[in-house]
Amino acid sequence: MNTSQLSTYAPEARRAFIAAVSAQAARLGITAEGSTSAEVQGDVLLVGGQAFPRTFADPLKKLIERVQADGFETTMEAIAYTWFSRFVAIRYMELHGYFDHGYRVLSHPEGQGSPEILDHAADVDLPGLDRAKAVELKLDGTKDEELYRLLLLAQCNALHHL
């Protein structure tokens, strides 16, 4: 087996995942320098003047505690590794037809630019998936990114409970 491409790809992918996770943490007010205060107001969590759903409050608190305990770099690397592993597992499962819903989550069998699961969002049955929300986002036609996030997280959560 020729592993030279993998030897080149793996470090690049690692850096890209760490950068993406760090950027998301920064969006939530967490950086290597510290964290921005967060405040819950009704159904909204305000972080540095930016609004997020209230449901972000507890996970954000846990993330801040983890960063304080383990350090920013270590935490970002661990989270990036977890997401990379999830994507590898999902890719393997979609290529081998292991999903009950039968749709690819990361790719399209016909090579189209968007994952197959987006085309069939109304038909996907995953535990915890808000199908009404998925249908609403699909019918909107301009919210594919939000729809994909909803579907991807539902798929990860479904796999977690296996």
Could you walk me through the main structural features you see in this protein, from its secondary elements to its overall organization?
By secondary structure, the chain is mainly alpha-helical. It has a domain at 1-69. It has helices spanning 4-27, 57-70, 72-95, 116-119, 131-140, 144-160, and strands at 30-31, 34-35, 38-41, 44-47, 50-53. The strands form two sheets. The protein has a three-stranded antiparallel β-sheet with strand order 3-4-5, with no helix packed on it. A two-stranded antiparallel sheet has the order 1-2. The longest helix is centred in the N-terminal third of the chain and has 24 residues, at 4-27. The chain is globular. The two termini are 32 Å apart. The mean pLDDT is 93.
The counted number of beta strands is 5
Spell the H/E element sequence: HEEEEEHHHHH
Poorly predicted tracts of residues: none
Distance between the termini: 32 Å
The percent of residues in helical segments reads 55-70%
Summarize the entry for a quick read:
The protein has 162 residues and is mostly helical.
Blueprint of the fold:
Layout: H1 4-27, E1 30-31, E2 34-35, E3 38-41, E4 44-47, E5 50-53, H2 57-70, H3 72-95, H4 116-119, H5 131-140, H6 144-160
Helix pairs in contact: 1-3, 2-3, 5-6
Salient structural properties:
162 residues, mainly alpha, two-stranded antiparallel ribbon, 6 helices, 57% helix, globular
